[in-house]
Amino acid sequence: MPEAPVVEIRNLSEHVDETVSVLGWVEHVRTHGKVGFVVVRDGTGIVQGVFVRKALSDDVWQAHEETPQESTVRMTGRVKADPRSPGGHELQVEDYRVLSRADDYPIQPKEHGVDFLLDHRHLWLRSKLQRAGLRVRAEVEQAIHDFFYERGFVRIDTPILTGSIGEHAGTLFETDYFGRPAFLAQTGQLYVEAACPAFRKVYCFGPTFRAEKSKTRRHLTEFWMVEPEVAFADSDENMRLQEAFVCYLVERALERCSEELEMLERDTAPLERVKAPFPRLDYGEAVERLRARGHDIEWGDDLGAPDEVALTEDFDRPVFVYNYPKQAKAFYMKENPDDPRTVLCDDLLAPEGYGEIIGGSQREDDLDKLLARIREEGLPEEAYGWYLDLRRYGTFPHSGFGLGLERTVAWITGRHHIRELIPFPRLMNRLDP
Length: 433
Fold this sequence. Notes:
Blueprint: E1 19-32, E2 35-41, E3 46-52, H1 58-65, E4 72-81, E5 89-100, H2 114-119, H3 121-124, H4 128-150, E6 154-155, E7 161-162, E8 174-177, E9 180-184, H5 189-199, E10 201-209, E11 222-231, H6 235-256, H7 258-263, H8 269-272, E12 280-282, H9 283-292, H10 305-312, E13 319-322, E14 345-350, E15 355-362, H11 367-376, H12 385-392, E16 398-404, H13 405-413
Parallel strand pairs: 3-5, 6-10, 12-13
Antiparallel strand pairs: 1-2, 1-4, 2-3, 4-5, 7-9, 8-9, 10-11, 11-16, 13-14, 14-15, 15-16
Helix pairs in contact: 4-6, 4-13
């Protein structure tokens, strides 16, 4: 007799009252007298197999009783619609084979410490909450590409190894590059700026690296960032693009990840209020608000995480803080013509305690001013010769920003720590697995 066809669990609704097989991994097994249940996951969904003792051989019954968690199985049975079952369908099991046993699986249905779980991250990925968070991440990543594709942006893949510094020299990972120093890229921004005259609207999306000795819930040493750059766009247009972008990502997650957000127990009401326009606070106004709340901050200081949280408490959606002091920001940001002490930049702060998810600015397009800033920062001028060429040969106003993927997904999912929103987190004390 031929074997039943293998189908993906997500397609079981197309096979009601048919006998099919599913291939997957056992989430749990339970038995009540002469009826047993095995829940199987195949990566597209989960389904419960119902084992009736009198209808099965001794071998099949015994195999189901003795299957360890996470063993690989082939489960065959008739598909029945049942809204009470996981996934809305179940299999009335006719045959069951253990293809690979997972004896002594380390992660059991009990509480484990975070260090233990991170040591076993290669296995922890399989748990339902981790799967839910990473599915939201995948949807947000796809939404990022869709947003820019629909608006005529060209994706530019930027190098990971670079001789140029994008942010702060103190947070660089340095390596030897055939006898000369090279760095893991902190940003792809300088390179997408170079692509702007070729394509007008561009973006890059990939891993970036910061050697920050930070152990907060908002920091990773390797994280993913999307960085668009737009020719002939000023700082105001840049903020409007950020608004549209963030609204698009949130709407997409609400539309396509409702099951995952429910599993993560995310209250979606705050996300549903994320609509443009977003409030805007001039940096000076932000400092006044913080001082009124008792924060120890002076004009010229950068905002810390507690400051960002406090500024969002009065609003029900993300908040822009714009035009920071020059001394607090990167060398490439354009001097504010209305107040040369400041630069035309913005940070977008997510509500609910998640803080900065975007940093953006209009770029300095004046060669002399850009060169002066590079010298002020003590950066190696020779490493930026190609970057300065962009101002020598057809300079133009342009703006862009960087959105941190893990922080954004943490906010959307309501997870406390961004380490759960990347498959294999890199932290100060963690390089494995």
